[in-house]
Every structure is written in C-alpha cells, then in structure tokens.
C-alpha cells in the first residue's frame, strides 16, 4: 500500500511535458513506473536526467521506450553508444538489426541461420548466402526462391532453373516473385527446349509468348518472332511483351495501326499512340482513345472532336467533364442527360448524374440538384440532398429523407433539425449515444466520453462466448510460418499466412491481435482488434476494455512526433487513418509510408526543407514531411478540418469547395464535401484525434 501511494505521489508530483524540472531521483523512479503506460511522459522525464549515477538505468529505460515505439534507429544508436546496456532477447536483437539494416553486425551476433542468409544476400555475398538458404524448413518455398535469386545474381542460370524445377510445392503469395525470377532467367538463356519446358511455369500466357518472342529474336528467327509478336499485340495489348513487340514490327493495314495504337495507349506512350491511331480506321474505339489522350494532355478542343465521334458511354462522360472545365455548365448537364437516355444502367451514367447534381449546386439550382441526388437513390446522395435542403431551410423535407436510415450521420442531423423545429430529441440522442458510442457524431459533436470498461479483458471476452484458443492443425502451421516470417522481418509474407487463418471466436482474435503487436505488426494487430470490436457490437456490447482500446489505437512513433513539435493526438490519428501504422504502406495512387505522401509532393516538401537524400518508408521522414505539409495547409486555411480535407484531396479542391460554400458552418462544410473519401477521411481523423487525446490524457 505504501508503494502504491508513493507511485501515485510521483505521478502527481512530476510535471507533464515542458513543466518545471524535478529532482532526478524522483524523475527516474517515476519513469520506471510509468514508461509502459505513458512512454512519452517517461521519455520527457528521462531526457532531463544528466547525472552519471543514473546513466545506465536511464539508457535501459530509453531503450525499452524506443523499441515499444518502433523507434528502431534511436534504439540502435543508443546501443552503439552504450553496448553494455544490451540485455535484449535474441528476437529483439535480430529485429532491431533487421529493421535498421545493419547486416554486418547481424552476421556477428545472430545464431539464426536464415537471418544470416538474408544478411549475406543483402551484402551481395551470394555464395555465402547459398550456404544458409536451406530448403526443407517450414519456409521451404521462400528458401528456394532466395536460392534462385542468388544463382541468378551469380549468373548461374542453369542452377536457377534446376532449383526451380525441383520445387514441388506452390505457395500462392510467392507466385509473382517466382514468375519474376523465371522470366528474368529465361530471357538470359538460349536453349529453346529448356525455355519451352520452363515457360509453362510462368502460368501466364502473355509472359510465355514474350519469352518465346525474345528467344526467336536472339536466334534471328524473324518470321517466328514477328508471328508471336503480332499475337501479343492482338491478344495482350496491355502486356510488356506487346509493347516490346512494337520494336520488331511495322504496321501495314488500318487494323495494324489500331492495334499498335492501343498498345501505346495502354503503356502511356501517347505520342506514338497518336501517330498510329490517326492512320487507323476512325471507329468508335479509336476515336475514344484519341479523345482520352488529348483529354489527359488538357487539349480540350481536340479531345472534344474525337469524343464526339465515339459512341462509348465513357466518351460522353468525358465530354461532360470537358464542358465543366470550360465553364459551359449547361452543355455539360445536357451531355450527362444524353448519357442517361442512351445508357441508363451504365456506371458512367451514374457518375455523370452525380456530376450533374454537383453542377446544379454550383449554379444555384439547389432544388433541381436535390431532385437529381434523390433520383440516384443511393444513401450518400440522399444524405447530400437532405443537407442541401437543411442549408436552404427546407427542414421538414430534409427530415423526411433523414428518417430513411438510422446510421450516425442521419441520426445526428435529424436531431439538429428537430432541435430547430422545437421537437423533443432525447430519445434520438440516447439511441445515437448507445448504438454508436464511437461515432464522429457521438464523440465530437455530442462530446460524449469514450465508453471504456475497467473490467479485465479476459472476463469481457468470456461474456462474448467461447474463450478457447484452439487452432486447427492447418491454422497452427500457418501461424507458425507467419511468426517465422515476422522473425525475418518479412512482414508482407507473414500477413499472407495470417490471411489463411479464420479465428473462430473473440479469444482467438484477441490472441492474434496481441501476438501481432508483440511482433511489431501494428497494422494487422489493429485489424484483429477491429474485428473483435465488431463482434462485440453485434452482441450489443458497446463498452470495451482498456486493453482493447490500446490495441485499437496504439501509440507509436510518439517520440518523433513530439520532437517534430506536432500535435501528438492529431498526428497519431492521421497515421492511423493513412496507414494503420504500417511504415511500408503503398496506396493504389502510389502514396507511401506512414503519412501516405505521394512522391511528387514529397519532392516539393524536400526542397522546402532542404533535404536531398530521403525515403518515405523511413517513419521519421514520413512524419517530418507529412506534418510539414499539414502545417503549410494550416497556415493557409487556419482550420484543422479544412487542412485535413486539403491533405486528402489537395488544397486546390478545398479552395474551390470553400468558394462554393463560403457561408457554411464548419460541420455543414464537412458534410458537403463532394468526395466521399475526403468527407469520411476528415470525420474519421477528427474522431480518432478525440480518442487519442483521451488516451494520452488518461495516461
């Protein structure tokens, strides 16, 4: 009891970030007690300790904090300066060196033969690597793949094929890697019989033909090469083989010009595509390709010329978009209506009708915009129609639409309308708060506290049903392989193995979430925690234990965020939304890293910061660049919601939306953001900022 009171005294006595300095003894004792629950607070205390008396204990605590926070570079630098504090277990030592790519040091410290193999491979010492990539383990296919890569780098192509030919298993998630090494190897050899025997292992007809094409070309068999080249161009115009075949062939007929032009179009070689397509027969397809090329080049007059001659639904849609950019709004609306008349069920028709509704908003015809949104008969378009009616004061009509759904957004705005109409809202509020306690509307707009339960998580799990963690033999093998991949820092392969496991109950979800967090795979840990929360929601359990909240919303990279002078809770919320704390994340738009920065934007940021050498997959760089960009948006918009919208959709769009809704309140502006993704992004980050603020304040 005395010890507990002492800890409470320390926590109360020690200042939070930036307050007056306390005696070092109190600070080291407090840091020791709180570093797990509040690593950032412990870090600020430890940084103020300078006495040699506490050097080792301070360093050991900092090391634990850095590892917990995934601040691997800091941890490695600390160990370099104070190797005597290294009491890490083998997994931690290996992981730290793998994460920081300290290959030479790994070779001298690790007892794991497969990690040695990886280190030798990364050091380009392929002969030695081969001594350690031993097939026959639980990662047999993985070892064979790396054996093949080693032999390829050594230019021993016969050995590559020998290794791959003997492979008798077929790990699906390694197929692209195998296909790549087989293709590269077959392009290096001349034996046609071997090539024909192995080409089938590519399991992709376009690649098989590409290999044969290159082989016939090397042997000088031009007729055969041309024949297969024409096949690639006709049947697989999007393939690399088709694009390569263009260098061997000449177009003679109008059909040839069309086929060649299509290949260039699909490979974004627009200059050559235009030259070919202009000599082709100008059918609807050719006119569309030419129109799209000029549209991408922003040569709208030429684009219109060709789009007008095409009957494709997409051609009509892009004509409408061009008229919008030319501020010919009525022409755009007429085109979208023609598209609806000609192709009523086409996806481009739906897109066109949405564009029409937004245009009607822009020109001030709100009621016609509302009618168009309602005619689309989608939940999102109905909500926007209701918001426009609310904006112009047609409260009763807006209320009728909002009563169609009982989701948080519809419930909240029903409450707002009923309040304006002087009608009771208590039951609606109670329903919103009880059914959706973690929603943006409950936490941010209604300012309700986070529904956390102090009950131990094991007891809470038991209330969900079966508490047995008992994986099948097959699932156990997948789990074993996943953990082995995690030990090798091959996280993407480990996650592929986890994809093959289907947890049967809440206890297994919790087990997997904890396990992934322990191995530093935060993204997958969060995903399992989200599944567990959804399972509880379905059983009507809305309050969650503290541990589940921490699994759902981990605090990582807090040291870097703090030292970048960022708003910690907001930056954590942005990282959660952008990448789920995956530093290797890459989006379909090629945004990279924790903060999901597009390389072109990163180039501008790097110039602004005077940084030449960087990688967006480095968490520290991603946070620095992302927060710098966000700070610039804050300077312009002076609003967190607007700056978040700019971060997601770009500042140009936000300026346009502001011009269109310059009198809207902030919450109305958010709801009227035209892009579903951006609107949801802003609300999600704001909600999670509230949660992270509560977590940090609680700690």
From TrEMBL:
The UniProt entry, under Pfam families, shows: SLT, TPR_6
Which Gene Ontology cellular-component terms appear in the entry? Answer: membrane; periplasmic space
TPR repeat ranges per the UniProt record: 313-346
Boundaries of each Transglycosylase SLT domain copy?
564-669
Q: In Gene Ontology terms, what is one molecular function of this protein?
A: peptidoglycan lytic transglycosylase activity
Q: Which UniProt keywords apply?
A: Signal, TPR repeat
Please tell me whether the keyword Signal is annotated for this protein.
Answer: yes
Q: Which GO terms describe its biological process?
A: peptidoglycan metabolic process
- The answer, when asked if Signal is one of the entry's keywords, is yes
Family assignment from sequence similarity? Belongs to the transglycosylase Slt family.
Name of protein: Transglycosylase SLT domain-containing protein
Source species of the chain: candidate division WOR-3 bacterium 4484_100
